[in-house]
Amino acid sequence: METSTKKSLRGGEFLVKESQAADIFIREDFTEEQLMMFEATKEFMKAEVLPHLQRFEKGDYALVAELMKKAGEMGLLSVSVPEQYGGMGMGFNTSMLICEEISSMTGSLATAFGAHTGIGTLPIQYYGSDAIREKYLPKVASGEWIACYNLTEPDAGSDANSGKTKAVLTPDGKHYEITGQKIWISNAGFADVFIVFARIEDDKNITGFVFHKDEVTGLSLNEEEHKLGLKSSSTRQVFYDKVKVPVENMLGERGGGFKIAVNVLNAGRIKLGAAVVGAAFKVIGFAVQYANERKQFGQTIGSFGAIQHKLADMATLAYVSDAALYRAGQDIESNQQRLKDKGLSDAEAKLKGIEEYAAECAIIKVLCSEAMAFIADEGVQIYGGMGYSADAPMEAAYRDARISRIYEGTNEINRMLTVDMLLRKALKGELDLIGPAMKVAQELMEIPDFGAEEDESYLAPAKKVLSGLKKATLMVAGAAVQKFQTKLAEEQEILMSLADMAIQVYALESAILKTEKLAGRLGEAACTERYAMTINFMHQAADKCNRAGKEAIYAFAEGDEQRMMLLGLKRFTKVQPENLKAVRRNIAAKILEENRYPFA
Question: Is there a smaller number of Cβ atoms within 10 Å at the N or the C end of the chain?
Answer without folding.
Answer: N
